């Protein structure tokens, strides 16, 4: 067989072998010989592969991306504690701190991270998880699935709650939350208790509206003659003074001030104690004409801040534009990096006249009504922004439009306040829009009662508190950092206002790369986080540990916090991880340690 095999290719002298009928036989013989050789040496091959691949298995090394201490003190402290725990169990960890906008750009736009620690804007309705986790959005920007998480079962659960209503929807939400708790696409850590400082001697009515929403700054009752002239707000994040684009993910989170500039068809009115209800706003009202069709009537004679009328065409344009910011000009749509889940509920809009329209939704009625909360954009200002973006010296991803990159200054909306002036990282000044519909005597809605709203920028809680104590500010719009809460001295003029939050701190995984796409890995990491201990250590008790990222009214009994995470209990006690137990958990999940106690993964 050896000679035949040689004759099939080269002679011993290197000349070509004789071709003809014997060539076919030789080829078959060679093939048979090769198969036999493979079979006889398969054990050696496995050993060879084991030796070769061993060079590709190294200690797991990862980076935790988070905001700098100036941007979010709690996030950096959480990142440090989590990093210390991971290092204890044999993982090499570094921490990368970025400014607010750089952090959001890295995580939400560029998807350039291994793990990150930060605060998610969350939502009052659990449908926010649809855009947060659905695989349809795994390659999009913004809070649309920044994790790159894909799971068909989770997709089914997300979709099921979206098309249901009433008790059926509540059951679907429970099933969705339980599936998410097992998969751990991110680790929910805690929900902070929000504290802001207010001056009661200048205004009354602080408890009527949540100060993370537009209604918190409306219907205030001035207590002195000059307090009606200007509401003095101190904000600890400079971004509102630099960018007022409602679509920009790097500069927007809850969008409180955007909601004062832009009206939506409906508004989630949230009281300081957390009670909430969806109520008509720019829409005078709506009715369901069948299971999937909403008929709305806009309030009459409404105008944008530049005097142009607000019409049903502007509403229809807004939903088309948020779905595709190139308005069909490209082969592929370029959706907005914000409001994606809400506008996805809308299948069609039929404009009947200037103030009447019908919206057909492909969801249940509860989710369909949530679609009414997006900001209405003036078509005459935004249609020209459907062109390709150009930023000097910056490479722009295909499909990015001017609508996404513009700072939108001056902003033109139709909200209760309009833009006046600004200075980057110093202040932004709004003035009351006196033609706003809430100023009409026939409309019973919260209205702007001050002539001006000045948002001053101050980066620290301690100096923001001092501004109120010195009567240089009336309210802190940003929640105060937890470490200063115990030191606040309440007086007749100044007091802290406590409010619940629907935002939550979490650890996010970039599931686009190994091992973070492995659910078993994520489960073990989740069990290395002592949430109760972190709430005490980092938040000084001013937060609530959570096992699921929804408000209390939506949390099922089997996911309610009862001293420990019911699905992913901590592998240790009092913040100290049990290293042997953690290593066993990793090994049972399919990972290995070397003799030096380092967790090894394929790089």
From TrEMBL:
Looking up Pfam families in the UniProt record yields: SBP_bac_5
Entry keywords, A to Z: Signal, Transport
GO BP annotations of the record are: peptide transport
Q: Solute-binding protein family domain: from which residue to which, for each copy?
A: 278-599
Q: What InterPro entries does its record include?
A: SBP_5 (IPR039424), SBP_5_dom (IPR000914)
- Per its record, what are the GO molecular function terms? peptide transmembrane transporter activity
Gene3D superfamilies membership: Dipeptide-binding Protein, Domain 3 (3.10.105.10), Periplasmic binding protein-like II (3.40.190.10)
- CDD domains according to UniProt: PBP2_NikA_DppA_OppA_like (cd00995)
What segment(s) does the record annotate as region Disordered?
Answer: 1-22
Protein family per UniProt: Belongs to the bacterial solute-binding protein 5 family.
Q: What is this protein called?
A: Peptide/nickel transport system substrate-binding protein
Q: What is the lineage of its organism?
A: Archaea, Methanobacteriati, Methanobacteriota, Stenosarchaea group, Halobacteria
């Amino acid at each position: 067989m050896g000679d035949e095999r040689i004759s099939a290719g080269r002679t011993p002298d290197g000349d070509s072998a004789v071709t003809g009928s014997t060539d076919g036989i030789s080829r078959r013989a060679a093939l048979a010989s090769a198969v036999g050789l493979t079979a006889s040496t398969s054990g050696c091959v496995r050993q060879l592969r084991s030796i070769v691949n061993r060079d590709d298995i190294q200690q797991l090394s990862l980076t935790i991306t988070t905001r700098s201490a100036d941007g979010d003190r709690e996030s950096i402290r959480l990142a440090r504690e989590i990093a210390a725990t991971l290092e204890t169990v044999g993982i090499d960890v570094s921490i990368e701190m970025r400014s607010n906008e750089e952090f959001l750009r890295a995580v939400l736009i560029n998807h350039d991270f291994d793990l990150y620690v930060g605060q998610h804007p969350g939502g009052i309705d659990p449908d926010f998880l649809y855009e947060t986790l659905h695989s349809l959005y795994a390659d999009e920007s913004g809070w649309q699935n920044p994790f790159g998480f894909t799971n068909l079962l989770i997709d089914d659960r997300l979709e099921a709650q979206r098309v249901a209503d009433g008790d059926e929807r509540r059951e679907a939400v429970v099933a969705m939350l339980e599936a998410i708790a097992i998969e751990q696409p991110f680790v929910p850590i805690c929900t902070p208790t929000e504290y802001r400082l207010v001056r009661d001697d200048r205004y009354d009515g602080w408890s009527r509206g949540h100060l993370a929403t537009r209604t918190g700054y409306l219907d205030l009752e001035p207590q002195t003659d000059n307090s009606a002239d200007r509401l003095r707000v101190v904000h600890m994040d400079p971004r509102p003074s630099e960018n007022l684009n409602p679509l920009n993910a790097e500069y927007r989170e809850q969008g409180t001030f955007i909601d004062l500039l832009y009206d939506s068809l409906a508004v989630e009115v949230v009281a300081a104690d957390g009670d909430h209800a969806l109520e008509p706003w720019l829409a005078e009202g709506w009715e369901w004409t069948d299971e999937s069709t909403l008929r709305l009537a806009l309030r009459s004679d409404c105008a944008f801040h530049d005097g142009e009328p607000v019409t049903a065409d502007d509403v229809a344009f807004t939903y088309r534009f948020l779905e595709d910011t190139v308005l069909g000009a490209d082969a592929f749509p370029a959706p907005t990096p914000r409001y994606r889940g809400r506008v996805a509920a809308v299948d069609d809009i039929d404009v009947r006249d200037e103030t009447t329209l019908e919206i057909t939704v492909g969801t249940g009625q509860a989710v369909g009504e949530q679609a009414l909360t997006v900001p209405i954009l003036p078509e005459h200002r935004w249609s020209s922004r459907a062109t390709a973006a150009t930023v000097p010296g910056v490479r722009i991803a295909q499909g990015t439009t001017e609508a996404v990159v513009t700072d939108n200054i001056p902003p033109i909306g139709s909200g209760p306040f309009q833009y006046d002036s600004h200075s980057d990282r110093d202040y932004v000044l709004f003035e009351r829009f006196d033609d706003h519909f809430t100023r009409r005597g026939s409309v019973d809605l919260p209205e702007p009662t001050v002539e001006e709203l000045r948002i001053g920028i101050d980066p620290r809680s301690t100096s923001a508190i001092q501004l109120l104590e010195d009567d240089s500010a009336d309210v802190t719009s940003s929640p105060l950092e937890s470490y200063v809460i115990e030191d606040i001295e309440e007086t007749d003029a100044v007091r802290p206002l406590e409010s619940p939050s629907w935002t939550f701190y979490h650890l996010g995984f970039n599931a686009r790369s190994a091992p973070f796409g492995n659910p078993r890995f994520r489960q073990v990491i989740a069990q290395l986080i002592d949430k109760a201990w972190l709430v005490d250590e980092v938040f000084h008790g001013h937060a609530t540990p959570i096992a699921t990222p929804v408000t209390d009214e939506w949390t099922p009994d089997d996911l309610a916090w009862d001293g420990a995470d019911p699905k992913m209990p901590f592998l240790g006690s009092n913040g100290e991880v049990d290293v042997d137990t953690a290593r066993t958990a990793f090994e049972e999940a399919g990972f290995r340690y070397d003799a030096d106690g380092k967790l090894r993964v394929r790089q």
